[in-house]
Amino acid sequence: MDETPVLSLSQVSKAFGAVRAVREVSLQLFPGEVHALAGENGAGKSTLVKILSGVHRPDSGRILLDGEPVEFGGPADAQRAGVAVIYQEPTLFPDLSVMENIFMGRQPRGRLGIDRRAMRASAAELFARLGVHLDPDQPARGLSIADQQLVEIAKALSLQARVLVMDEPTAALSGTEVARLFGVARTLRSQGCALLFISHRLEEIFELCRRVTTLRDGAHVASDLIADITPDDLVRRMVGRELDALFPKQETEAGEVALKVRRLTREGVFTDVSFEVRRGEIVALAGLVGAGRSEVARAVFGIDRWDAGSVEVDGKRLRPASPTAAMAAGLALVPEDRRQQGLVMDLSIERNIGLAGLSALHRGPLISRLAERERARDWAVRLRLKFGRLSDPVNVLSGGNQQKVVLGKWLARRPSVLIVDEPTRGIDVGTKAEVHRLLSELAGGGVAVLMISSELPEVLGMADRVLVMHEGRLVAEIPRADATEESVMAAATGRSAA
Amino acid sequence: MAVDLARMARRWEGLILVLLVGVTVWASLGVDGFANGSNVSFLLLDTTEIALMALTMTLVIVAAEIDLSVASTLGLSCAVLGRLWNAGLPIEAIMPICLLVGAACGAFNGLLVTRLGLPSLAVTIGTFALFRGLAYVMLGDQAVAGLPPAYTSLATASVGPIPLATILVAVLAVVAAVVLHATGLGRSIFALGSNVEAAFFAGVRVKRIKLWLFVASGTMASLASLVYTFRYASARADSGMGLELAVVAAVLLGGVSIFGGRGTLPGVLMAVLLLGAVRNALILADVANEVLNFVTGLLLVASVLAPNLGAVWRRRSSPQVEGKSVT
Q1: From B128's CA, which of A3, A158, A291, B152 has a CA 20 to 30 Å away?
Q2: Rounded CA gap, B71 and B247, in Å?
Q3: Interface contact B195-A324, CB threshold 8 A
Q4: Of A191, A207, A239, which marks where a domain is finished?
Q5: Does A235 reside within a domain?
Q6: Contact B186, B261 (CB under 8 A)
Q7: Are residues A368 and A431 located together in one domain of the fold?
Q8: For residue B303, with 0-12 CB atoms within 10 Å meaning exposed, 13-18 middle and 19 or more buried, which class applies?
Q9: What is the number of other CB atoms lying within 10 angstroms of the CB of residue A498?
Q10: Nearest residue on chain B to A332, judged by CA atoms?
Q11: Residues 200-229 of B with CB under 8 A from A
């Protein structure tokens, strides 16, 4: 490979106050190649992306475009230089059509203002280049996240982007959507684009990328050819130590039925869902995105109402549509969307942890600050939370640590049934293993755990039983011994209704 | 970023305190008649209604809602009082009825907001007109006088230079501050004001709390109407016209975020006093009424602008952009 990189970073550093987010990192992006950026949360990946996209200016070091030093004064400079970034959750204008989003501010003009026909044709051509089918006239509202990303990619292409940075694009995608995105990435690669791909899923890195650069604590650890290393090597580079088993499943005796869901139906969302979770069990709820798993969890916990059926916790029937009643019965839900549903981002760690158990913090009519702090400190220590002060707002924490705060908030209530929805989405490998160990310990301690997960290794590694949903129905129940990727996927895609 | 905001919130209250002390010192030295006991007493008395309504307004705005109908509720409550007094009811029976009317007004707002999911800004602009209109329907433009002297003199009585009404404000302020800053309800109000979805997922009874905040706001407005009526010894339908702006101004100037989730009661109380002192000093200095409104408006705009200017300035100095889009 004696080509010149399209874009390279040379010894780039960036600090925010006392925090050295990126330290002397070098990175070379070659045309026609997918390069992975790996590292735990807080390793500096996002800062590096922001340097590449012109949002941050490096304190020292150089950015080279085609071997020539350049300076990005802002995102517009980076865009002119051909660098485009696709984020995990794109921000389109929801009320404009797909093509208007692509050509925002650069609409082709005809005699009578905007030439919609030319715009439609160009958009269609871009999608053809990407090998995907999207209607240019469709409004952006209602597009799946995967489709929104494609719109962003089409927009990048229309700007003649030569470097495409994809910042955790697959985190919220289903298996088929990931496959389609990878198809697009390969197409772009063959057209000479340089891609930088960020993902927490190692198997994706190994499937798609040719090189990988690993960061740890802001520093450059290694740049390898994927062919030369194993996933274990990569994890070691990211974590800097030997990782405990990623799926530390303990064998436990299943006890009494703690959660009993009978013929639960919410019209148009899920139908006739029945299952039980026993104390000491971890039951996974698998299925494709949109199969209705989170919706079942929301209904069970009382966030949404249900139209028919019943939910019992420890033999007591729950009042529908009341989270408070569910909590009083011993249910806890760690929701899917940590930032929006799990945490009040502006509030402090201690207030977030206290929020789900305010009555326990009262001494007489008043809240005891001491009790509030003790409860937070207790769980922060148990969950090995990395934090500055308990009075810091949770939005300064990394994703994995935020998830620990959500877990602490619910575990402090000592629930008898814990529902976790995508408990390790978007968190780093080290914290993932910790969360898995925690779930396993909780089950060992007699908690009934219902785990919704889109990551098959997690489902297979952690669950005593796997329930599979497909299009709003529970289609399979697979015991641990029989659960394989094939059997779960077959049920999830509706190919077998065993 | 949010650390900065929290620290700034604290500094903001410090700033209001400095301004309050500054204005007091300046007015004491430079404005004839400001620093004597009867003027201080009048100043305090004159801010009673605003202070009372600002207490509940603080809770409402921290919960990311707003109640623009408070002054109209006050007017309606005054009109009810006048009408019933004309009808010959004893004042002791009328007062609880007024409080119930205020509570009902608040409940009406609260139900529209929580049951129908309407934005409180729109709902309370509507009831702002509705309640005031109702007040005129009940009492027309007559002024009901001849209220019992026992109550009218009580409303203006003082202990030393401190009016009794101010003691009422102080007691309720302590209650409101304790509720907001030291109870589970207060924690819940901050949480739902900051992120209503996350609060709901944590078992906070969002709708119930919001409903009761509106009820409290309406009840407080009618309590203020009693003070107002007895203080002026006259019940009129146009009582307290425009006070809602003074109340909202004080709350925002006191450092409560218009977006909810942030603010403190001591800050609001200082802002009430600051606005009252500025107004009082300017009146004593013979400044025209138009200028008074201009100054109040200026302080309000400054209070909304200042925290944001700070943020803009910080963004300039260190380019830590929050937004995700690169375009």
Answers
A1: B152
A2: 9
A3: no
A4: A239
A5: yes
A6: no
A7: yes
A8: buried
A9: 12
A10: B202
A11: 200-205
Does a structural domain hold residue A107?
no
Cβ <8 Å between A359 and B184: yes
pLDDT at A189: 93
A175 located within any domain: yes
Residue among A78, A333, A393 minimizing CB distance to B3: A393
Q: CB-CB: which of A55, A362, A365 is closest to B326?
A: A55
A41: distance to nearest CA of chain B, Å? Answer: 17
Token pair 């709708």 in the structure block, residue: B207
- B319's CB contacts (< 8 A; 6+ apart) are A55, A56, A57
β-pair partners for A264: A273
Residue range A310-358, pLDDT digits in tens: 999 999 999 999 999 999 999 999 999 998 999 999 999 999 999 999 9
Q: How many CB atoms lie within 10 A of CB A305?
A: 11
Instruction: For residue B184, give how far its alpha carbon lies from the nearest alpha carbon of chain A (Å).
Output: 5
Cα–Cα distance for residue pair A383/A437, rounded to 1 Å: 11
Please judge whether B194 and A56 are an interchain contact, meaning their C-beta atoms are less than 8 angstroms apart.
Answer: no
Give the ipTM of the model, two decimals please. 0.84
pLDDT digits (tens, 9 = 90+) for A65-95: 998 999 998 888 998 899 999 887 788 898 8
For residues A288 and A385, membership in a common domain is answered with: yes
Among B183, B199, B326, the residue with its CB nearest the CB of A367 is B183
Chain A hits for B318, CB-CB cut-off 8 Å, are: 16
Q: Which residues of A touch B188 (CB under 8 A)?
A: 355, 358
Distance in angstroms (rounded) separating the CA atoms of residues A240 and A64: 29
Say if residues B280 and B30 touch (Cβ distance below 8 Å). Answer: no
Alpha carbon A266 to chain centroid, angstroms: 26
The tens-digit pLDDT sequence of chain A (498 residues) is 457 899 999 999 998 776 778 999 999 999 999 999 998 767 888 889 999 989 899 999 999 999 899 999 888 899 889 999 988 778 889 889 999 999 988 888 888 788 889 999 999 999 988 888 889 999 988 888 888 989 999 998 888 889 999 988 887 777 788 888 999 999 999 999 999 999 888 889 999 999 999 998 888 999 999 999 988 888 888 877 655 567 777 777 788 999 999 999 999 999 999 999 999 999 999 988 778 999 999 999 999 999 999 999 999 999 999 999 999 999 999 999 998 999 999 999 999 999 999 989 989 899 999 999 999 999 999 999 988 899 999 988 888 899 999 999 999 999 999 999 999 987 878 888 899 999 999 999 999 999 999 888 889 999 999 999 998 999 999 999 999 888 888 888 877 544
Q: Are residues A220 and A349 in the same domain?
A: no
Residues A210 and A338 in one domain: no
Say whether both A214 and A267 belong to one domain.
no
- Looking from the CA of B4 toward its CB, the CA atoms found within 13 Å total 10
The verdict on A70 and A205 lying in the same domain is yes
- Chain A interface includes B317 (CB < 8 A): no
Last residue of a domain, one of A239, A271, A293: A239
In a domain, A498, yes or no: no
B182 to chain A: which residues are within 8 Å by CB? 366-367
The answer to whether the Cβ–Cβ distance between B3 and A362 falls below 8 Å is: no
Q: A300 and A345 share a domain?
A: yes
Domain CATH code at residue A226 = 3.40.50.300
Nearest beta carbon to residue B187 from set A341, A342, A351 = A351
pLDDT beneath 70, residues of chain B: 1-10, 307-327
- Any A CB within 8 A of B255 CB: no
Interface test with B, best of A50, A149, A196, A358 (most B CBs within 10 A): A358
What structural domains does chain B harbor?
2-317 (1.10.3470)
Q: Is residue B261 within 8 angstroms of chain A, CB to CB?
A: yes
**Residues 49 to 78 of B: which have CB under 8 A from any A CB?**
none
Q: Which of B140, B131, B120, B148 is nearest to B258 (CA)?
A: B120
Q: Which domain holds residue A158?
A: 7-92+143-239
**Number of structural domains chain A divides into:** 2
Looking at residue B294, its pLDDT comes to 85
